[in-house]
Write a structure and sequence with these properties.
The complex is a heterodimer of chains A (349) and B (367). Chain A has 349 residues and is of the alpha+beta class. Chain A has two domains: 15-154, Creatine Amidinohydrolase, Chain A, domain 1 (3-Layer(aba) Sandwich); 159-342, Creatinase/methionine aminopeptidase superfamily (Creatine Amidinohydrolase). Chain A has nine helices and 14 strands. Chain B folds into two domains: 6-136, Creatine Amidinohydrolase, Chain A, domain 1; 140-365, Creatine Amidinohydrolase, CATH 3.90.230. Classes of the chains: A alpha+beta (349), B alpha+beta (367). Chains A and B meet through helix 5, helix 8, strand 7 and strand 11 of A and helix 3, helix 5, helix 8 and strand 7 of B.
Chain lengths: 349, 367
Amino acid sequence: MRRGLISRSPVELPDAVLDARIACTHAALRKAGLDALIVYTNNTRPAGVSWLTGFVPYWSEALLVLVRDRAPVLVAALTYRVKSWIERTSRVGEVIHTQRIGLEAARMIAGGKADAAVGIADLRGLADGIAADLRTGGPRLQLLDATTLFEALRACADPAEIALAMQATSIARQALAESAGESLGAITAKVEKTARMLAAEEVYIAAAPDLGRDARLRRIEGDIERGESFALRVSVAYKGTWVRLVRSFVDPALWQQAAAQFAAAVARLPQPNAFDGFSSWLVEGCRVAQPLEPLMGSRIAAPRALAPGALVSVQGSLSVDGQLVLLGAPALLGAPGESPGLLVDLRFE
Amino acid sequence: MAEINITEERRRHLLGAMAESSIDAMLLYGNAWQGDYLRYGADFGILEGHGFALVSSAGPAELFLDSVVEAERAEVETSGATVHFDPDVVRIVAARVDAAGVRLAAAPLHLLPSGLLANCDEPLADATALVDRLLMHKLPAEIAVLRRAAQLADDAYAVFREAVGVGRRQYEAVADVEAYLRRRGCPDNFMIIGSGGKDVLGMTPPSERRIARGDLVTTELTPALQGYFAQICRTLVVGTASDAQRRAFHVFQEALKAGVAAVRPGATAADVARAENDVFRKHGLGDYTTSKWTRVRGHGIGLFCDSKPHLLEEVDTELVPGMALIVHPNTYHPDVGYIVLGDAVVVTEEGAEVLCRTARDLFEVAA
C-alpha cells in the first residue's frame, strides 16, 4: 500500500496533458467502434488510470469509465470520505463510490446504451468478480478486450511522462548516493528516507547483500550481513511514473567500466544481441496498468516489441575482472534510427 | 528449543483443512493489493504483478509469477516453493490447473483474473471461505509474530511523535517512520495520516500539508514482520490540547475500553462494534458511528492489514481464541475533527490480550 506522497502538480502534470490523453483515447474509441473504455486500477496496477487522470489509489480499487466523448468517471471502492482527496489528486469528471465497482460501471454505461461495445484494457487480468458484475450490471453490453488499443495509445512517452520519469530517476539516484559503509539496514534506511523526503510516491528497495555469494536481489527483512561488494536496487514511483535504478557497491573503477558497457548495450536496443557479454539482462516498461512489466531479457522466451519513444527500465549483470556487477537505469527508446539513451549518469561520487 | 517454522505450520494447517474438505490441490491468488492468500500458501510477499500458488500434499508449493524481478526475489525469499516465471502467467497457470487432474479449489475465487477462469477447462471450486477461516484463526506461531509486530508499531509510534513538528509536511513525518522501520529490518508498513482540525474528515496517504500549531495529528501505523501486520492508531496535538480536544478524546478512550472489554470467545464482531458505538450514542454522537463518518470500528489483522472480520454491527462473525483484531473507534467528532485511537488485540480464552503498549493518551508534542 502506498504511503509516500500522492499529489498532483498542475505544473508537472497539467490539465492540458491529461485532456490531450483523454482526447486521444476518445479518438481511438471512435476509430475502433467502441462506445466506452474501462480501465481498472488498484495500488499494484495503477498505471493505466494514472496515465489518463493522475489518480493513484493508496489502496483499494476503482474502475475508470470513459464513455465516448464524455468526461471520465471514476467508480471507486474507496469511501466517499476521501472524495475530496481523489478530486485533489486527479482529474476526473465525477467520482462514484460503491463497493460493487463492476456493477455500477456497467449500469452507468448500459443506462446510456444497453448494447454498448465496451473495451476493457487488460480484460484477461481483470478480477473475475468484477468481470461478473459487469455482465450482471449490463447484460447486453459487449465486453471486448481493448488491451492492444490502450497499449498503442501510451506506448510512446509524451514530454510530461518523460519529465516525471526524469524526476523519479533523480530521486532514485540521490537515494542511491547514500553509500555510507554501515550495516545494510542502516544504508537501506537512508535510501528510503532520502527518496521519501524527495517526495517519492513509493519506494521498493531490494539488495544483493553479498555479490561474492549471490547476485539475486531481495527485500531486506531482519538483520542481514553485507559482504564487501553488494548491490541495491531502488524502484521509485513519482506521480504515477515508475523507474528502477541499480547500483553495485564495488571497486569504483570496475563500476565505471561496467557502467560504460551497460550504456553501450542500452544504446544497441532493441537489437536482440544488445547485451551480449552480460550474464543477465532485463527490459521493463509499462504497457497498460502494471508500472513495470517484463518486455525483453535473458529470461524472456517471447520478447515483446519495444516501441520507439517508450520509457523503459533496464537492468543487467556482468563480470568485470572477476567482479560481478549489477546495474540498472531507466532509458528512453529513440525514434526509428535513433539510439536509446539512459536517463541518468551512472557515475556516483 | 527448535525454532517453529511458520511456513511449515501454515502448510500443515492448510493441507489439513483441504483434506477435511476433500480438496486435493488449492490455487491461491495474490497481488500487492490483496496478498494474504498467496502469502499463506507460498510465503511470498508479492509487490508487483499477479502471483499464484498451487498447494497440494503431492510436493512443494508451486509459485507462478509474471514479473522477472519478483520471480528472482521469490527464489531467494521463499523456502520450499518452486518458482515459475512467465510474462503470460495466466496462460501457464490455466495449463497447470488443467493438467492437475485432481479435485482443485481456488481462493479468493472472485479475485482470480477472468482470463484464467475463461481458459480453464473445468470450473474451479470456491475455497475462499475455507482459507478465510485459516487466515482469521491464527496459529500460536502467527500470534507470536504479531506480538513482535505490535511492539514495533509501538516503537514506530514513538518515532512518529518525534517526527511531528510545526512546519513539517505530512510526508516528511512519514519518511522518518519508514526509515526507522527499514533500520529495524521491517520491510513493509501501511500508514495513513491526517492533520488539522474540523476540516479533516479522515486519513489519507501523506500530503504536502504542513503541520500547524493546534493540529490534531492522526495516524494508523501498521508495520509488518514476516508478512504479519499489526496496527496502532493514535492521535496527538501539536501544542497543548484544548479543553474541547480533551473532552472529545475521552469519548474515544471510553469507546476503545468498551470495545476491548467486549472481545471474548463467543462474542461476535457486531458485539464489539456495538460496545464501541454505544459509548458514542451515550454521548449523543451516534450519528458519527455511521458509514457517513467512519468505515469500520476495527477489523482483523494478520497477513493483510485490513483482514476479516470487519467490526461492524451487522457482522455476526463469532470471535474465537487465536483471532487477532484492531479495535479502533475512529471517527469524526463534530467539535474538534477526526480522532483515532486503536489497539491490536488477540482473542484469548479469557478475553482480549492487548498487544499495543503505548498509552491511550492524547499526546502533546512541542509546538
